[in-house]
Structures
1.
Amino acid sequence: MVLPEECYVDEFDRYAMNDIPIRLIRLIDMTFVERNEVREHFRTSYMKHLGQPSDTVRYAILSHRWLNQGEPTYEEMRAGTAAGPGYEKLKKFCAKAEEYNMEFAWSDTCCINKNSSTELDESIRSMFRWYGNSAICIVHLARSETIEDMMEDEWTERGWTLQELLAPARIKFFNKYWVPMTGDRNDKDDKDDINEFLVSRPLLSSLRRRGPAEILETLERATGIPYDDLRRKFCPSPSEVDKRMTWAARQQGSKMWRIAYGEGGDRAFCRLIEAIMQAGDPSVLNWKGEAARHHTSRAIPRSPQSFIAYRSLEFEGSGQLEMTMTSLGLRVPLVIFPLSVRSNMRAGHGYSIALDCPLCPSIKVDIDTSCRLDSIDQYALGIVNYSLIGHVPGIRGKSAGFILHRAPDIFHCVPVCKPNCTAFVRLKFSAPEERFAEWKLVEEVGLVQVDFPIIPDEPVCYIDRQYLQTVYL
């Protein structure tokens, strides 16, 4: 089906007015142009070829470490008074952008009017998309001369540059002297055909051939991000949250959370986790250590560092976990199996505790915690990576779950009335069962893996729905 021309025009206009930076630097005269000017500049070319707007609206984008002082500002660029080492860096970047046949470029130092809170907010929230839509991301490593130097470069440690590394499909690294660090045009993919971008490559031709493999392997060691995730087009999604949070944990960027959400860093991170939980991927629960100071829940990690000690657990194939934050805590349905304490021994500054499952004696769970478990409490395994068909839960051979406990609810103990039997007709009386408080997490333990004996060749065993309970953590 061929779309009418108006549809292509509408798609192009939406892209140009929403998915590229608010303003760009026009390289021919180093002046600002707004989105509407960029749209008009590229529209004729787009209408000749149609296709994806991002293939036509091309701009270079800079990734770098800010100088302590001397970066050009929005106001200085407007007035034509920008000068100093930061402006020299900007001109070097623009020169490299022109080598990639770019007509426009963007830098976070001067292309954002930081006196406008609305513009600053939009820029921060859109930056990943802007880097992802760039034709080429040019990285300047001010502390590196060789690829090996990247291991100690501050650029690899900043929280802001994490998105600048992952989002672009094409990236090019330059060292402190603005010399290319490899002989390839795209350091994410040596097979990327972008010859049509390039006007000249005098620096590239003089380099010994050092492909993206070497630079990406070095970045993997420096950042902890796997090679395959660095090389492919990164797609943000609320999946593999435990693995991806370890990438952020290695970055220095607590200020980033405060700026992005306009509030304290701890609270901002809590809001991020709550938003991720709405997607229902149980990997967001795979953390260990101290919980955040959240107003209702103890299931929220304190920071990305909480994910560093995450266990390698199997979540693939499990169903979406319904997680809702309420005034009582995180509302989540879990498959609950009772546990009994086999031993509770002092170990260093904490306790080493062994638990058994009465319903499946082969299940043995050993945990370490700073708190001694009370013998009068009830204990349970709350499985998170189960699946549902209808309302029937299915558990996997390798299941992951929380260790839960609950104490007798002494505040709801009331005297039992024994009325005169002649005062009632055919009314049956019954003594109430012992009541317990709500399930709580055994803190600092995180998710544990248990191996259930299952039918050979069957990935899931379905059990009675009575074991599925809604808890508030």
2.
Amino acid sequence: MQGYAYILTNPGIPCIFYDHMFDWNLKQELTLLAAIRARNGIRATSALRILVAEADLYVAVVDEKVLVKIGTRYDVGSVVPSDFHPVAHGKDYCVGEKGSLRVPAGRHL
């Protein structure tokens, strides 16, 4: 899923394999990442600002709307701006959106 977190949040033209969507049971996570991409209008020409690119950590901001953190490093210190809130996460990745805190349906703060 780290690869999909990257290609679905970074500029470019992503591709999702049929087998991954249906046979590997990744539909829920892939659909959420694709929705984040669409909701924030990420395109091939979107602006990319890489905050960290190291062996165990990649953090980038796309169009100043979406933040993606990929890698095994848990402690990112002050790298992540405070105005981004997590909207999707999985093994070794997290995606955040700028602005208001989004609470999934059926959940409460």
3.
Amino acid sequence: MGIRGLETFIRHTFDQFEKIKLHNCNVVIDGDSIFHQMYKECELTCVFGGEYDEFYQLCKQLFESFKNCQINAFVVFDGAQLDHRKESTMIKRAKDSITQSTTNDSIVSMHPALLRQTFINLLDTMQVPYISALGEGDDECVSLANHLNCYLMATDSDYFCYNLYRGYIPFESLDIQPREKHGRVYLTAQLYRINSLLEKFKGLQPKTLALAYQPRQTQNLWNAMEWMRKMNDVDEALDFLLEKVHLNSTYELRTKIEEAILCYLEPSDTLIYRFHSTHNSNPNLLKNPVFVQLAQTYLNTLDMNDNQIEDSINEVSQNIKSKCDHSLPLFLGNAVTNCHLSSSFIEIFIRRQLICRALIEVKEKPSIFTYAIPIVLPCFSILFKYEQEQNDLSIIFYHRKIDQLEKDEYVISTHADDIPELEQIWTTMSVYERQNCIKKYLKIPDEFVQRLENIPSEFHLWLMIIHYCSIGTLTETVRLK
């Protein structure tokens, strides 16, 4: 989410940015922040639903410039929201999207639904390696950048709070037009290192700086840093601060502050283990041997055997629990990190709800997600089939109705004999069998499926869904509310 105004505060108050020339180097990229910023820079007319080709071409220009300058890029995507901390923020953003979605103003900025997938398609074409975190990606971006000795590039002011060994490059400072001097082709950018800020406030340490950032309001940052530089450590500062807090118990508050500080000082680093050769089931990681070698060099420094590395990978999935306290299936976690499945499946697995942002739509017509519900409900029936402790499961969809965000609750049946097991689909079910499942749930007529025989099979799923949506056959589902 970032700290509003922090970059402006650092840039204008201290001018702590170093001008650099990027050439023959390695960069970890925060994928979500970059592709959203690039779409914004395109200034496309989004009322037609995407303008994906123009967006694709701009992204292609960026990575072609990287290639010309011998810059190796590795992209990390955000995963799911694993707790409830940002639920209210997500609901507010969904409400704000409805306001934009239904406006009559011709100038409106909304990010289309397939923006991330378009960006991933470009990465596949350009052979750029990428991976998704299971949870938020900031910590993993920092850890990978430090372990692989890379710059980190993003558009998130939270990265000013981390101790990045090579430094942080705000994407807005990058000029994607290559320059050449003395036969050397390079890109210009600006680099920030946390040490340059610490030098301005003698006495500040990374720990105390992380606490100073907790107000998350720029008007308080100067005073906070001036005060924190006088403290010997975080414990002394917290003792002083919590003396002024009139609560029955300050233990919970102190714990939350310490956890927030620890995220900056010791960011999680689970993705690096997925480079391990005995586990590597993610072909995306193998696209650039430079990062494979860097990762293996780092892993060789660890006092861990193959089983311990495997346990570290699996532990993340095992700690993600459903309402019935089941762990996230390992193969499902792998599918999300490989970007084969949306992280929305994890959020539904945890909370059994999906918050849908509106797109450019006609206010008087149903939300586009209304048409998707009969498509995704069978998916969730499969996802929750092993939750045998409950006879009836339900899932909540937040989506637009006219000009309001409302929620609908749907029953999910998991006891039908014809619902396949999730692992069966993922490991043994043929493409033909999967196609029959889709055909049955969407009630696609046999004659339409027969017409697909002369079309490549990779298009069949999309054509069946397009057929389903085009005829508007919504299967009415039993509602609780």
